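Readers of this paper often ask what the protein records in our data store actually look like. Below, we set out a record of this kind in full and without editing:
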Amino acid sequence: MSESRNIITNERIDTDLTTHDFYYDLPEELIAQSPSTQRDGCRLMVLNRDTGAVERRIFREIIDYLRPEDMLVVNSSKVIPARLLGKTDKTGADMELLLLRCVGEDEWETLVRPGKRAKIGASFTFADKLFATVTGIVEGGNRTVRFSYDKEKYSTIYQVLDEIGNMPLPPYITKKLENKDDYQTVYAKEEGSAAAPTAGLHFTDELLCRIKEKGVGYGEVTLHVGLGTFRPVKVDKITDHEMHGELFHIEEDVASEINRRRANGGRIIAVGTTACRVLESVSTSDGTVVAGEGETGIFIYPGYKFKVVDALITNFHLPESTLIMLVSALAGKENVMSAYKTAVEERYRFFSFGDAMLIL
């Protein structure tokens, strides 16, 4: 790494927009409960951010919109089976823990249910393989928890989680996940996310190979997705909303290739809002990307001026969420809300396992 950073946020931009301005009516049956049979076989809506015009394609046809001088930037964070079901040691009552982020050696910030059973010092057991003690209470009511396990049998906590943990699906997905890999991108590498960077779920190894053969650049950044990205906006004035920080890093070779391609007229295409947030967090005012690591709480909403991201591959997001605000910042609120209205009318599939949008 060439540079280390503390938490990164953007300057707040004055706006009259309210949270309700990003509301749209979504029939429940359009929320996808399972992935497409073929990852790259879902529908793709292509939105022209200058005109608001939309085209209707299949995701694998996205290659038709990519130029050899462009560069895809993906988030290669890997989702961990972060949902744990266990018992309290004191009474044997049921407990649920969701691991949010690592804050020290075998110590994690977690979401605990029910919270009343998670006072400091309380201990829990999961499948007789993983043991937890509450060490602190942080802002928002989350708990810090220290874990212990048989270190002769398991070299890291991730090995224990692979055996006993469940994938942390969003609450709007009620169908049981048959295959853990369905909620993992094909390029996932570094364990640490509590939710998938879902825009990347549509890519297959074959499609990525074809894209690279065309000459399109490919780079990986890492942002460990926490629940903060998906936390509901509970304030009316969007500028009053606070984003939770998420850990990220970007390597020197990726930053250099992005800068080289931008200088040669290529477009930087972020795969997902998480990759977009990393790039905008590490870019200077002239769009130069600087390698580094840190924590970002950047909140992007209409009025924000993008410094490096030219295009975005994304899914269809929840009403009134920070994610729909981000895509509206790139494509214009009116264009996005109109495209979403069309998507509802044409029965597109929404959210994590749903269809995709390319904003150019």
